[in-house]
Design a protein that fits this description.
The protein has about 290 residues and is α/β, with parallel strands linked by helices. The chain is built from 13 helices and ten strands. The strands form three sheets. A five-stranded mixed beta sheet has the order 7-6-8-5-9. The protein has a three-stranded parallel beta sheet with strand order 2-1-3. A two-stranded antiparallel ribbon has the order 4-10. Strand 6 (about 100-105), helix 5 (about 110-120) and strand 7 form a beta-alpha-beta unit.
């Protein structure tokens, strides 16, 4: 049996769902690979690049800014699962002007996505609002800050169902990032300097993840059972609504990247980072070479 380390670099359904389904459904074992799932959230790039990684957003930022030659071999979705959640009285992103927003750091993938969306709403992230930068986590402190009023809004990820949390507290979901910015995000990527894309273990992981994507599309009962392990604070009805709104319609069923989306995303990310858009989507997202079958 082949072996490989696979690192996630964020938490929640966005980052972990496909790998979790592949693991729980024994798809890795079926494909002849032993996968060690590693928490790479705080790893530096040198350590991370010795593993396969789930975090395609971080991989793209690293390739554009630092030249690390990451390539993506499988893509789970083009709609990042991040939301702007706000206290009562705010109804649009434009209302964040002059307000306090808890958000990821600018040169992290989620933070970069947030800044792109804010700019598209007519806001300068550095001048038009007060940002409280914090590391990714379960966002529990952000929810406390919203309750206490120490922040006005928070940029949160998929460790919760934000629409259900907003309804519970009388808050507002100002925007879903996936409605405003698309990018091939989360899947399987490798740095060929350390792991060849055609390595048998990598190919086995890609096959397993594509089987998991089929389950996410074709077997809601199994998928919801797995999702509930991530969204323990939500009811079964809220979990189903979250799946039907944000996951089932937008996760790929074949792991393929949309290269037009990829080209637009690369230009947007490079502009936000202030670096040249030095590669094409076909160079970054090589998913066509790994057709199922």
């Amino acid at each position: 049996m082949h072996t490989i380390d696979l690192a996630y670099v964020g938490r929640g359904l966005h980052e972990e769902l496909a790998a979790y389904v592949a693991d729980q459904q024994d798809f890795y074992a079926d494909e002849g690979v032993h996968v060690a799932l590693r928490d790479g959230c705080t790893w530096d790039e040198e350590r991370l690049r010795r593993c396969a990684t789930i975090g395609l957003g971080r991989a793209l930022l690293s390739r554009l800014a630092d030249g690390t030659p990451w390539v993506a071999l499988n893509v789970n979705t083009h709609r990042p699962l991040f939301w702007f959640l706000a206290r009562p009285g705010l109804t649009s992103l434009a209302d964040l002007a002059g307000r306090r927003l808890a958000v990821h750091a600018p040169r992290t993938a989620p933070g970069c996505f947030a800044r792109i969306v804010l700019r598209r709403a007519g806001l300068d992230p550095d001048r038009d609002l007060h940002t409280v930068v914090r590391a990714p986590g379960d966002y529990g402190l952000d929810l406390r800050g919203l309750r206490e009023g120490s922040i006005d809004a928070a940029y949160v990820g998929s460790t919760m169902a934000p629409e259900a949390v907003a309804a519970e507290h009388g808050w507002q979901v100002l925007a879903w990032v996936g409605d405003h910015f698309q990018i091939p995000t989360v899947g399987v990527a490798v740095d060929p300097t350390h792991i060849p894309p055609d390595d048998p273990a990598v190919q086995a992981v890609v096959r397993a993840h594509r089987r998991a994507l089929q389950v996410i599309h074709d077997d809601p009962g199994t998928t919801l059972r797995h999702i509930r392990t991530f969204l323990g604070g939500q009811t079964a009805e809220e979990v189903r609504a979250h799946y039907e709104t944000f996951i089932e319609p937008y996760f790929t069923d074949d792991g393929r990247a949309d290269l037009e989306v990829g080209e637009s995303a690369i230009r947007a990310v490079a502009a936000e980072l202030g670096v040249p858009a030095s590669l094409t989507a076909a160079e970054m997202y090589r998913t066509a070479a790994f057709e199922p079958g």
